[in-house]
Every structure is written in structure tokens, then in C-alpha cells.
Amino acid sequence: MASIKEVAERAQVSTASVSRVLAGKTTRDEVRKRVMKAVDALNYRPNRVARSLRSNKSTTIGLVVADIQNTYFTQICRAVEDTASKSGYAVFLCNSDEDPAKEATYLSLLRDENVAGAIVAPTAETIRTLRAEALQQLPLVMIDRHPGRLAVDSVVLDNVAAATELTAHLLSHGRRRIAGLFGAHSATGAERHKGFLAAHQAMKLEPVTDLVRFVPPRAEDGHTAAAALLSMSHPPDALLTSNGLLAAGAFRAITESGALFPEKLSFASFDDTMWATMVSPAVTVIEQPTYEIGQTATEMLLARINNPARAVRSVTLPYRLIRRRSCGCG
User: Fold this and answer.
1) Is the pTM of this model over 0.85?
2) Which of 4, 21, 97, 157 could be cross-linked to 35 through a Cys-Cys bond (beta carbons 3.0 to 4.6 Å apart)?
3) What structural domains and CATH numbers belong to the chain?
4) How far is it, in rounded angstroms, from Cα 319 to Cα 233?
5) Computed over its alpha carbons, how large is the radius of gyration of the chain?
């Protein structure tokens, strides 16, 4: 790998001139052209860590998501990368799989890599155990999950209200045996379960506890859990899932079961994935503003990096219930 000294020698300039060109600082056009020609010829790539140590300012941020296969997080990643790039930052992407130990390892790695800060969709365990000292070492913005007692910037959805409205919609169709699949070890799954219960309580109804499952938020687990529920001697008359991956698996189980759908079985989920309108019947969903979540979180993190003493902010973004045929609507 070429060094900055080799670039300078080839361009017949000083290493300081090479640094100025690569940093985008004003230089003579002739010098800039010679440096860039040498950079291309030698395939030179600046060492980001060394550069950040010299300038005492990192140009990378971390992004820790629960599952990149979930299109909800894929869309957030797109927004974070777009927004960070406009401000000259690169993004390290980490996938925690809702595993607190894996998440802790990634957060430690990001600190060791001297990133400027990180955006995290934290597990419930991380929210419970993260200490204030850690936030001083690595500026954070939490997304998707409420930070609880932590004084940390956050961008969230009102998961309880959204799940309450989605469940109430199923109840309004006369469904009384509503099954629920919620993400295990997930703060989001727990909040959406609270909304599920709140909707029943508002109508003075008791949810059927045997129909509630906390499962890993993956398509295969959604399929297994939904298939088991639908094969019961007294199956549910509605099924609600708390994310798009669970929904994909559950929808397949419903179609395989031969249930009269949506006449006898309603279905609804969080996350307006692409396939939700491509299947028949189209799926009733809670639509989340995924791009806005990623964009807002990145802007908040960059503001925190530039001004560590600024007041902590929590932004709650709106959701939208989209009614489609899977729940029995028109």
C-alpha cells in the first residue's frame, strides 16, 4: 500500500501539500492536479484512523442495528449513510441480532476504532446496563427503542400507541381471539405487547394469553409460531405481528393452513414492506417513517459530536395505520 510520502515524491510536492489536497483545503490548481494524478497512479488510500488521531477528529460513525435483513433497518441504513456522507462522514455498520453480548462487543469495538459517535437500536439489556461513563466515551443516539433512564438522544416511535391502534382495529372487526407474535428480548416487542394489552383493556376484554408468543424476530420463527397457533383445536380469529420479518413468516403459515382468509382470520402487522401490497389479500400495517428516523438520528448525532454539551433531545415521529384487505377491510 502506498504511503503519503510516496504520493508526495511522485507529485514532486511536500507531504503537507498532499495532506492539504486530500483534506479539501485551498491549494493551487496545478498542485491539486499533480497530487490527484499521483493518488490515482499509486492507488493511495488515506488511513482514516491515523488521520483522525492526527486531527483529533474522527470522520466515521457507527450504526448498530438489530437485523439488517429486516427492511425496516435496511431503509434506516440508507438514510444514515446518505445523511452522514453529505457531512463527510463514513459509516461502520454492525448487526447485533438482538444479542446483548454481540452488541456490547460492537460498541466496544467502535470505541476502540475511535469513531466520532454511534447510532444504536439497543437491546433491552443494553438499555438496562449502559452506564453514563460509556456515553461520555462514545456519543450515542438511540433509535427505535426508548432509552429509559438514560440521558441520551433518541428517535423513536410511540410503539405502545401504534400497537394499541392496530389491535383496536382488529377488535373493531369483531375479532376476540387475537394472537400476537412479539420480538423476544426486544424493547420494541415489549412495548408493542403493552399496546396489545391496552387495546383489550380499553374495551374491557381479556386477551387470550395462550395466543401470545415472544419469539426471535425472524421470518422462520414467525412461520413456526404462526403455524402452531393456527393448528390449535380452537385457533385464533386474528393474528398480529410486531415486525415485517415475523409478518413474512406468519403470512406464509396462514396461506399454508388453508384458513378462510380474511373472512374468518384477520391479519395485521408493523412495517409496510414491499411484499405487503404484492400478496393477496394485501396486508394491513403500521407504517413507520423509516427514512426520517435514520436522517433525524444522524443529524442529532452530528449535532452532539459538534456540541457535546447540548441538551438531550428525544424525538417521537408519527406512524400511520394503513387499512387493507388482510384484516377484513374493503
Assistant:
1) no
2) 21
3) 4-46 (1.10.260.40), 58-157+290-318 (3.40.50.2300), 159-288+321-327 (3.40.50.2300)
4) 36
5) 24
